[in-house]
Amino acid sequence: MRPRLELEAKEVGVLKVKDKLNKNLTLAEAREGLKRELSSRHYRLREREKENRVFLLARKKTLGLFGADVVHLGLLIILAGGITSGLAGFKEYLTFSQGKVLDVSKADFKLRLDKFETEYYANGSVRDWKSTLTVIEKEKPVLSKVVEVNHPLSYKGFVFYQSSYGWDWTNTWLEVLVKKNSDPSFLKKIEAKVGESVRLEGENIQIALLQFIPDFVINEKNEITSRSSQPDNPAAFIEGWQDNKKIFSGWIFSRFPDFSRIHSEQKLDFSFELKNFTAGQFSVIQAASDPGASFIWLGCGLVMLGLLLAFYWPSREIRVILEERQRQTEFLAGGISAKSREAFESEFKEIMSSIRRMK
After folding, report:
1. What is this structure's pTM?
2. 267-282 per-position pLDDT tens digit
3. 127 within a domain of the structure (yes/no)
4. Distance CA 163, CA 148 (A)
């Protein structure tokens, strides 16, 4: 709504910043001189003449008037973005082994893990996880990127983050050393996948690698379980068969070979050591879609813009009534500023001083 131009003298007189003077000028001369002075100070003018009076409204930095409105608009947009995210956004976790292709919920494309690697510091602690992901659309690769912590992959409104990783212990390869107590020179190495059996070279013994536990522990219920998925105490359960008869069984440990326990009904001439183990790692990728995020960012931007307008671009307004009386023109002026009142008062005084010097 545009402000009213025609004000009564008492309405100008109640303004905190005001002044009144008379000049030996005609109404037209006073009007043009006042307009020049205000225009030189970048005020935008509106005027109206009625009978022997001129009503003039001068304003500048008017965008500051809308600061509060812009802030409120931004808050509404943030609220709308939050509602949109709550209703339409989603998160899911995708567990990849190398080379695996998985569907992405609510998306028209798939994702493939080409490579996963873990980087370590010199002390053995994890430095970084890196997953090389490829977007598959209509059975064709369209985009590849190395995803790591704080460096996600973005595609068609979906964002893919590196969440965690682990080992596929159900698909573990074991390396076991076999020694003979009666022959110190006897040393055989067997390699096999968990669940497979291997014949011991030169002996009529079949060794089965039945189970692998990355972090061996016996719990309160006297049950054998894994304390964690980390390989902190690797152990394997093996059995030995001869002529379809089980001759030994027991657990062997990688880090504590002397703690290995092999049970046999008769004296066994062999000892076993879990030398090495390898398992494929898997990568856990968090897939997220947040359709309200753009609204939230827009709303935050508007809030910041509104605050800047309100606090650093305050509007200023000057009202002047010119009235011609007996070849003199009376100036009745008043003004108001939303902020920086001292600076405005100083400017107002300068304007009135220029008018006093006007000829």
Report:
1. 0.58
2. 888 899 999 998 888 8
3. yes
4. 9
